[in-house]
Amino acid sequence: MESRSLVNFSGHQYLRQRLVLSILTGKHVRIDKIRSEDKDPGLRDYEVSLLRLLEKVTNGSVIEISVTGTAVLLKPGVVSGGPVTHDCPLSRSIGYFLEPLVMIAPFSKKPFQLTLRGITTDDNDLSVDLIRTVTLPHLQLFGISDGLELRIKRRGAPPEGGGEVQFLCPIVKEVKTVNFVDPGKIKRIRGIAHSVRVNPQFSNRMIDASRSVLNRFIPDIYLYSDVYKGDESGKSPGYALSLLAESTTSAIHCSEAASSPGEAPEDIALLATRALLSEIRHGGCVDRKHQSLVLLMMVLGSEDIGQCRMGEPSVRTVQFLRDIKIFFGTVFNITPVDSSNTELLYSCLGTGYVNVNRSLA
Amino acid sequence: METQTHKPHRPAQSGSKAEKKGKGKQKTGFNEKAFAPKSGRRADRQARRNVERDEARLHVPLVNRTPDDEPPPVIIAIVGPPGVGKTTLLKSLVRRYAKQTLSEAKGPITVVAGKKRRLTFIECNSDLNSMIDIGKVADLVLLMIDGSYGFEMETFEFLNILQAHGFPKVIGILTHLDLIKKQATLRATKKLLKRRFWNEIYQGAKLFYISGVLNGRYPDTEILNLSRFISVMKFRPLVFRNTHPYLLADRIEDLTPREEIRTSKGRCDRTVTLYGYLRGTNLRQSTKVHIPGVGDMDIKTVTKLGDPCPLPDADSEKRRKLSEKKKLLVHAPMSDVGGVMYDKDAVWINVPGNFTRGATDVPHGEGERMVIDLQDVDETLEETVARSNIRLFGSSSNPLTVDTRHHDGENSYGGDDAEESENASQGDSEFEEEEEEVFSEDEQDDEGSGEEDEQFRTGPLNTGRHAARTIVRSTHGFSSKEKEEGDVAFADSDSELGLSDDEGRGRAGEVMYADDEKEILSDDEEEFDEDNEDNVPAWKSGLAAKASAAFEELNRRKRRKDWVAMIYSSSLGPEQIAHGAGTPGVKPDEIDDDFFRVNSSGATNQDDLDMTKEALSLGALREWEDEGVLDSLRTLFITGDHDGGEADQEMNAHENPEGADLVDLESRKAHPALTEFEGIDAETRALIEGYRPGTYVRIELASVACEFIEHFDPCYPIIVGGLLAAEERMGYLQVRIKRHRWFARTLKTNDPLIFSLGWRRFQSVPIYSLDDHSIRMRMLKYTPEHMHCYASFYGPVALPNTGFCAFNALSGETVAFRVSATGVVLDIDRSTKIVKKLKLTGVPFKIFKNTAFIRDMFTSALEVAKFEGASIRTVSGIRGQVKKALNKPEGAFRATFEDKVLMSDIIFLRAWYSIQPRKFYNPITSLLLSDKSRWSGMRLTGQIRRDEGLKTPLAVNSTYKPIERPARRFNTLKVPKKLQAALPYASKPKLMKPQSKQTYMQKRAVVLEPEEKKAIALLQQIRALRKDQIARRREKQQVRKETHRKKIQKDEAKDAEKEREKKKVYMRAAGMKSKREADVEEGRSRKRRKT
């Protein structure tokens, strides 16, 4: 019975999505050759921490890590949810941990009440601002909305962190099929410029710099200056700007840039703004950072055709599509919308995934 | 006198009488007052009830996944106890639809019933396993009931199974009504059975009456009526079937290489193909399937086949006029329809000739029999020669052998032959000892083979399959054509990436190209045609534009193909795909050709992080400093060049579908499916959306247990049920369960129970529990009476809300009702939280004020430490707490109580011990048995003891003995003199000596006065008189009563005599009647169980 349910991968890349797919399908996954050629072989501390976190939110999961740390075997249990607290290591931000959990959380036994502590914004993963303002609205496309919330209790900038967020997610029986083919026109731009343990003027400087570019496009721009003080501001100084552009059909494109030592707030703002513009130019109804989330939810939808218009797949998305085929057997049909632009129409037949973990008792 | 006329009655035209009469006439109609509510409260109640009833009629709208254009055939199961007339009905119905008489009806039979409807008939035998499986797939059940006998146990069992797995439509059919001679009895029986049937299904459920049998069939008019009912029947989608793909296999083939079977003596795992119409949802190749009675299997391949029983379309309708026979399509590969048999990818037609096996009634000549016997040979002459021991002369001791050793080198024939030859060579050396043995073996062999032959002749498989047949039309051509199509399709999807160095694919790639060209050409041709209508030379003018358009089209197509193909069927890395997408300059061939390739995934991506955001750098985004680039984006904003009206429109257009989402759930259905994937080639489409319900598919399964083929019986349905991802896993299921009220015994925790859940049938060991004040799940030893409880067991996961039914035994020998429980799945988990009560007892050995030392509860201080702070209690109800372990007697501890305890008190600690259900899961593999109804699973301990003849061990402590309780004696309270003296008066014991002097009342004398004396004497006399009188009266009454009793006795005796006479007459008549009936019945011998 178990022969086919074991999926093998090698390499440390795309670890998160594979773990997520394994938990959702219940297929065992074995990942080997994790940095086996590296000077420092094996799993990193944040990866181990992620595995720990996954073990916490599931019941009956078996995670076996080889002695050298270069191979992991995950026999997933059922997603139990409930109140869970986790301290994330300082090597990655909270976003690294929150992104896979956002995919799992709607399919748990009890509603998620997850408290994560660590770095809230960095350059590698989605900041908690973007997850709150962009990722969670994407879940609303699929009928996951009531009680979906991300509370930023404290901010923590790298390297010392000290931030805390609380993620609340309701459970669903099944997700809706999405039919999102009209990207619409961008009607407003929102942004959050936050700064902790630095001069509060920094966030205003970022806002001004960003507005200097964006003002030409649209008048409906609100960039909030969000300054955290005292206990809520974490242990390290830092500032960042996250921007999102919402269209008439509530398609959202986003970008952000975080401070690094020695960089002027204006530069950060320009970086974020230009990234937003290139993201907008990229087109589609979903931005590149959320392609995999939307594609996953499409696969999990009811057994109807789900459609979504997006830009060309990112590297992660390509591998994600392949992994989806391995785990779910679902293949997407990807066709250009029209000959003139590069946007693609992703369509697939949902698997009719039902939240088995949800209990009736 | 004759002409005398009477004055006719003239009704009153006016007055009170006329008024009364008029009123009376009006009253005969509907009296609305009769149903009007009498009070406001009653009106309210009535309105509530009406609303509730209407609400109960509503159902959650369920999307019907069955396509409307070409739905799969409706499965009609014919179910009933043995001898009720199922086969007769099946044959009658098939004859009604196909105008053919089946000689034997086995397995599913598909016929065309109308423009949009095909029907698959299947007869269900009376094995409970078959009934369960059939109940899970049947769309309509024809439930047959013997009218002359009434309902039987199977009928009720089947209805309960149906109830647990989503109730399909049921039509009752009463047969054998011709056996009831008396019209009144017939009417009464019909009414009675109808009432019961309605109670069981719903009020007004359709019940057909079928009178008798004509020419081995039911009367044509009655069958016609039934078929009309079937043809207009509408089906509601059932939840479970609407979420799972499944098929009812109507054909099964064994594709295992013969050689492999031969070498393993038939014990090897088989490759099996199953054929049938897909139902439910789309079937994907990656789906795992479960075949009830066999087990879980992976699909090796799925192939779409041509419809063997297609619906009539416009084309076939045209043809039908020419040959009426087209209408009479019937697809029944498992039964013998007009001598046509389907075999492994071939069709066999049985031509009854001289050497045909089928006709056993015709005596065969010796020659014919030899030829027929030749058909049974399943090994070559060489093998037989190698095996045989021919003696040249009757007297020669050593049989002739053929040395097969030289074969071994070149072609390994398997152990079989080698052994044989070795034996032979052994025989060479020691022939003298072996001779007799060899001889006897030889004889045995002969006998054995003879037996085998006979078995073959009589075996059930033999009837049609081994008859002499001639291959008329092999479906090889068909399948190869399919394959070719597949190749083309594959190439399409593969595009010209040409990743495989496989020749065939390369060629196919060319084919694709040609295809594309042709398509373009044909497009052009069409345009030419259009143009031609206008004016001739115009076509030349737009040539260049057309060419470029065509090129663009081609390009676009290529690109489109690229994405799906590059992602799913190329070995390019994701980076290459994502970044090199626009420029397909990276030729995959080059990459493949590179013999020495740098392991890119190993070296280059060593230190890249798994990150969502792409690294930003001002350098890469420098282009945005250019105003022109910035302006190019303006069109994407609502403030851009385009008019704002469009945006508003779009907004509206978007908001509409969201609002309409809930409303037209039904109509939305698979509409995108129809339009979305229409243009794609079949192969890719199958990859994307799987195989749609209604298609006839061939499913190939690898490594199926050989018993499935060897013991195949077409009378047992084979169902291929697709499993959802979650259902492949195992776990602990928590279900709500209720013992069936007709099941005689209670169910006990840890007794094995057979579940029919989802597609599966399996045995597991449940633990029953009940929610104890929402605090804990408390184990129950037995299921409660008339109440639901929870059960937890280990087994394959099923979605919550799936219904199930449970059985203690499936064998047909059980006389009683076999459905032991029904219920629904509530929860899936990897652990359970069931606890059972544990009482630890101890006794005090030293008591202080409110403190006591307790022993005998624990055995060590460590145990005590674990329970520190736990609450304890005496039997009398004094509560306390465990404090700390004592070091003297091991396991003793100090405890405090709310009051002083007694030495005689028993102290106990109530604890909860968590238990897990046993990890026992035993799938029922009934289809793998030669006798399919004889599956036996885990037995109960009692059953094993009974079977083994063992006595139940009796623990000495468990025997009952008379309880002897010595009466407790309490000593009298003695207060010391000294203490008494010190006590205050109130507390002093107040004990005194008994009084010795007589009181006045005791010692006074009473003397009567003379009048008093007289009065007392008089009273005494009167009393004596009265007494005497009563005594005399009683005596008299006694006598009277005696005479009366005698009279009564006499009458009773007379009545009894009369009654006896009456009974005698009646019994004689009844006896004669029953004898007559028995004589009538003797003709048809039927076995049946009493209900």
From TrEMBL, chain A:
Membrane spanning stretches: none
Domain RNA 3'-terminal phosphate cyclase: 8-334
One Pfam family in the UniProt entry: RTC
Keyword entries, A-Z: Nucleus, Ribosome biogenesis, Transferase
Matches recorded under InterPro entries: RNA3'-term_phos_cycl_insert (IPR013791), RNA3'_phos_cyclase_dom (IPR023797), RNA3'_phos_cyclase_dom_sf (IPR037136), RNA3'_term_phos_cyc (IPR000228), RNA3'_term_phos_cyc_type_2 (IPR016443), RNA3'_term_phos_cycl-like_CS (IPR020719), RNA3'P_cycl/enolpyr_Trfase_a/b (IPR013792), RPTC_insert (IPR036553)
Keyword Transferase in record: yes
Record-level GO BP terms: endonucleolytic cleavage of tricistronic rRNA transcript (SSU-rRNA, 5.8S rRNA, LSU-rRNA)
Record-annotated RNA 3'-terminal phosphate cyclase insert domain positions: 181-281
Signal peptide limits: none
Recorded GO CC terms: nucleolus
Gene3D superfamilies: RNA 3'-terminal phosphate cyclase domain, RNA 3'-terminal phosphate cyclase, insert domain
Subcellular location(s) per record: Nucleus, Nucleolus
Molecular function terms, GO-annotated: RNA endonuclease activity; transferase activity
Main location class: nucleus
Family according to the record: Belongs to the RNA 3'-terminal cyclase family. Type 2 subfamily.
Protein name: RNA 3'-terminal phosphate cyclase/enolpyruvate transferase
Organism: Suillus discolor
Classification of source organism: Eukaryota, Fungi, Dikarya, Basidiomycota, Agaricomycotina
UniProtKB/TrEMBL annotation, chain B:
Subcellular location: Nucleus, Nucleolus
Stretches assigned to the Bms1-type G domain: 72-236
GO cellular component: 90S preribosome; nucleoplasm; small-subunit processome
Superkingdom per UniProt: Eukaryota
Catalytic reaction(s) noted: GTP + H2O = GDP + phosphate + H(+)
The entry's keywords: ATP-binding, GTP-binding, Hydrolase, Nucleotide-binding, Nucleus, Phosphoprotein, Ribosome biogenesis
Protein name: DUF663-domain-containing protein
Main location as per UniProt: nucleus
Gene Ontology MF: a single term: GTPase activity
Highest classification ranks of the organism: Eukaryota, Fungi, Dikarya, Basidiomycota, Agaricomycotina
Biased composition range(s): Basic and acidic residues: 41-58, 1031-1041, 1049-1064, 1074-1084
Family classification: Belongs to the TRAFAC class translation factor GTPase superfamily. Bms1-like GTPase family. BMS1 subfamily.
